[in-house]
Amino acid sequence: MFSAPSAFQRAAVPPDSKEPEPRHPRPTGEGAVATATAPDRASDPTTDPAPAPAKHRDAWFDNVKYLAIVLVAVAHAWEPLMDGSRTTRALYMVVYAFHMPAFILVSGYFSRSFDMSPRKVKRLVSTVVVPYVLFETAYSLFRRYAGGYDDTPISLLDPLFLTWFLVALFIWRVTTPLWRSLRHPLPIAVAIGLLAVTTPEIGDDLDLQRVLQFLPFFVLGLVLRPEHFELVRRREVRVLAVPLFAGALALAYWLAPRTQLGWLYHSSSAQELDAPWWSGVVIYLAMLACALVLTIGFLALTPRRPLWFTVLGAGTICGYLLHGFLVKGAGYFGLFDRYTWLSNPVGLVVVSVVAAAAVTLLCTPPVRRALRFATEPNLDRMFRREPARR
Length: 390
Known about the structure:
By secondary structure, this protein is mostly helical. It has helices at 59-78, 86-109, 118-145, 164-174, 176-181, 185-197, 208-213, 215-223, 226-232, 235-255, 262-265, 277-301, 316-332, 335-338, 345-362, 365-370, 372-375; strands spanning 35-38, 55-58. Strands 1-2 form a two-stranded antiparallel sheet. The longest helix has 28 residues, at 118-145. The chain starts with 34 loop residues before the first strand and ends in a 15-residue tail after the last helix. 38% of the residues are buried.
């Protein structure tokens, strides 16, 4: 049976941060991207002198979010099947090489307007801090009682499974004004990532290794402009993306039995992966380059026009936070051990389809509305009322 080195991993999370999408002129011509109108919430006439203009959602970004969360759910469902299949492990490696960088880059792009104003701080607390506290607690209790791990603590300092990204997003976003004020923020972010990958003393608190090692992609998103994404959406880039992913899959198939998955998660230093510090520098830089190229390919292949799943892009946070209970629950109840045929090619297809369908349902508007108390609670009573603008 195929086997390969592995390492403990935690899940990814999409960058559905509830921040308003940056406005930019609607492109024209062949590279135009169809948009959907999303009205603002009702304005308070006592504070706003005039109604705010309607915001336009870019269908392409919603498609990116939806397809990315589907890849997350499918990759998580593949994890119990990898030990018996080199092909499954190779597919998993390709997906994990780019989906987190893609999430973080888009998250950084939509964080460009964050300025620590009272309104945006309030939104950050309601859409990042509160969901982290609630779901970190929920996953800890689920692991303790459904998984039988009686010693599982409830600790907000040690993110469990798929909650780590909420911690990272909070840290990245509150430092956004700093990155926006620097003359050359991206080289500094890469230098911080290099220091992290060679510093085992950082420890596990708040999963800071991942926060620092993935930081360059968030900063890259902050410095990108709409015209950069127009370059990615060019036809020639889409054509090149197909052989790019074919070559990446072939390379991953060759590397599968030789590579520790811990390098993909960026949750450990080189020394913790039993490698010398200098190799961590080389591998980290190589993986940054690989992730960037594959992210460009993924963005290029994402459809630009509104499709049936475009509306689901607004609910990816629900799909992300809830699908983990299904994946972990299947493992806790021995589903993959009981039905060993799921490791076969036909079983892999079945698992992939079921995972994609489940996360799709979890992204639908009814689920989003039902979960709003946890993902977007109304915290007006906790914060002071902003003074009227004159």
